[in-house]
Structure formats: structure tokens, C-alpha cells
Amino acid sequence: MLSRVIMVLAIVAAASGAHANEYGSATAAELTERAKSAVEAGQGGELLAIMKEMQRRRMFFFEGDEVLCRREPPKVGVLAKPGFNYGTARTAYQTFNKAQRVEDQDCTCPQAARSFQEFSVQFLGVTPERMTEAHMAKLREYNQDRKNTVADAYRTFRNTSCREEY
């Protein structure tokens, strides 16, 4: 009995591995349709392979921790001053993370990539509390140079790889 279970599991694993490359290039809508077909046909191995691809892309219920997706810059130092510094920093943070999501082909929300603290240290070399107006100028320049192109690339990526197309 145990040997039969092991054999069935080995066959399922081999079948799901055979489909992995096929599913890697499928759109979100194609994956969804294939999952529905696999369920209707009782094809557990194929469904498992599809679900693994959906999990790799962080689609649907695999999307990730909602708390990470709502991360914002802290309102400290120059970010707490009246004016546009907070919005500038927030836009640069989101743009930087969106660019990484496109590069990594990862459907998880952009803010899950890193905290604002990590972004600030990585991009500017300082913590948010130590940011100066010179750092804000660097963020403004970054936004002017990349915000629109990254937003377009990210939208295209999300629409083709991460969302249902119904």
C-alpha cells in the first residue's frame, strides 16, 4: 500500500515538473482556465503544477501579506515638514519597488519588496530620519527621470502576467 502511494506521488511530481515550463509562459487568464479545466477533469497533478506557477507569480490568494502592501514612508525629519517632501519620497519608494517587481517578474505588491527604511538606506545611504533637502532633490530627480516609464512598464507587466484578462 505504501509503495503505491509513493509511486503515485512520484508520477504526480514528474507530471507537474513536465508542465512547469509550459505554465511559466502562460498568461494569468490562461492559467485560470487551465486550473478550471484540471479541476473539472479531476487532474490533480496538472492542477498542482498550475497552482505552483500561480504561487510563484503570487496570483490571487497567493498575493502576500496585506500589511507589507500598505507600507508607507515615516513622517520624520524632512518628510514631516509641510510641503511635498513626503509625497516625493513616497513616489520614489513606490517607483523603485515597481521597477524591481518588473525586473524580477514578481506579482507581489511593490511595497513588499522592502521597507521605506531599507529603500532609504539602499538608495540614499541614510535612514529616513537623517534625510536632507539634498536627498529630497535626488528623489525628485529620480521621479522625473523614471516615474512614468516605470509606471507604464509595471502596468503592462501586471496586466499581462498577474491579472485575469476577463
How would you explain this protein's 3D organization?
- Keywords: Signal.
- Residues 1-20 form the signal peptide.
- This protein is 69% helix and 0% strand.
- The chain is mostly helical and 166 residues long.
- It folds into two domains: 2-62, no CATH class; 66-162, no CATH class.
- The longest helix has 30 residues, at 133-162.
- Mean pLDDT is 82; it is low at 5-10.
Topology of this structure?
Blueprint: H1 2-24, H2 28-41, H3 44-57, H4 66-69, H5 85-104, H6 116-124, H7 133-162
Helix pairs in contact: 1-3, 2-3, 5-7
Signal peptide: 1-20
Keywords: Signal
Concise overview:
Keywords: Signal. Helices cover 69% and strands 0% of the residues.
Helicity level: 55-70%
* Morphology call: elongated
Q: Biggest β-sheet, characterized?
A: none
Summed over residues and divided by their number, the pLDDT gives a mean of 82
Counted beta strands? 0
Percentage of residues in strands = under 5%
In DSSP terms, counting alpha (H) and pi (I) runs of 4 or more, how many helices? 7
Q: What count of structural domains?
A: 2
Class by SSE composition: mainly alpha
Report how far the terminal alpha carbons are from each other: 45 Å
The arrangement of helices and strands along the chain is HHHHHHH
Rg of Cα set: 21 Å
Low-confidence spans: 5-10
